[in-house]
């Protein structure tokens, strides 16, 4: 193999990523549950919109909007951040796609995609904005308007490097 091919192979190995970046509105408050092993995990659905201009509709065309729903799941460190999300909040999430295998009630093996949250950030809190519009003072409580991204790949070791 030539040097260029080696560089391409090396680059391809390091640039493959399983990352989905979504910005959307929470459909309901985040739901936290505890696994049989005693670990917390959190579930949330968000809606994203896409649109296009359909020239075949009407004289001047028509804007067509399509909403997609995405089911998110969080484990470990991201649970605490996702628990703060309320219905109507605009959030930004970075996720990875994981396939979950399970057996349905009829004994059939099935696969289902899970969007596993790597980081989450609240861009717009509907609750706080409603209070501000009503003239109520917005209290700076423990729930910040935005969250710093949480690295779920952190190692718990006390390594000096």
Description:
- This protein is α+β, with helices and mostly antiparallel strands and 161 residues long.
- It has a single domain, classed as OB fold (Dihydrolipoamide Acetyltransferase, E2P).
- The chain contains 3 helices and 6 strands.
- The longest helix has 13 residues.
Number of domains: 1
| Average residue pLDDT | 80
**What low-confidence regions span 5 or more consecutive residues with pLDDT below 50?**
139-161
What is the 3D shape? Answer: extended
Number of strands: 6
What strand order characterises the main sheet? Answer: 1-3-4-6-5
Give the helix proportion (percent range): 10-25%
Distance between the amino and carboxyl termini = 36 Å
Supply the key terms.
single chain, 161 residues, alpha+beta, OB fold (Dihydrolipoamide Acetyltransferase, E2P), five-stranded mixed barrel, 3 helices, 6 strands, extended
Outline of the structure:
By secondary structure, the chain is an alpha+beta fold. The chain has 3 helices and 6 strands.
Please give the structural blueprint.
Elements lengths: L2 H13 L4 E7 L4 E4 L5 E15 L7 E14 L2 H5 L7 E14 L5 E16 L1 H8 L28
Parallel strand pairs: 4-6
Antiparallel strand pairs: 1-3, 1-5, 2-3, 3-4, 5-6
């Amino acid at each position: 193999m030539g040097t260029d091919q080696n560089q391409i192979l090396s680059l391809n190995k390091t640039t493959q990523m399983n990352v989905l970046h979504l910005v959307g509105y929470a459909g309901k408050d985040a739901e936290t549950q505890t696994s049989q092993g005693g670990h917390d995990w959190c579930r949330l659905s968000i809606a994203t919109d896409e649109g296009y201009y359909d020239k075949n509709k009407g004289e001047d065309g028509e804007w067509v909007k399509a909403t997609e729903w995405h089911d998110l799941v969080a484990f470990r460190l991201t649970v605490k951040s996702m628990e703060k999300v309320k219905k109507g909040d605009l959030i930004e999430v970075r996720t990875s796609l994981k396939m979950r295998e399970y057996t349905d009630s009829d004994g059939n093996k099935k696969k289902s995609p899970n969007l596993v949250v790597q980081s989450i950030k609240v861009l717009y809190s509907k609750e706080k904005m409603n209070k501000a519009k009503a003239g109520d003072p917005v209290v700076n409580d423990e729930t910040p308007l935005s969250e710093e991204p949480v690295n779920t790949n952190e190692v718990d070791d006390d390594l000096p490097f």
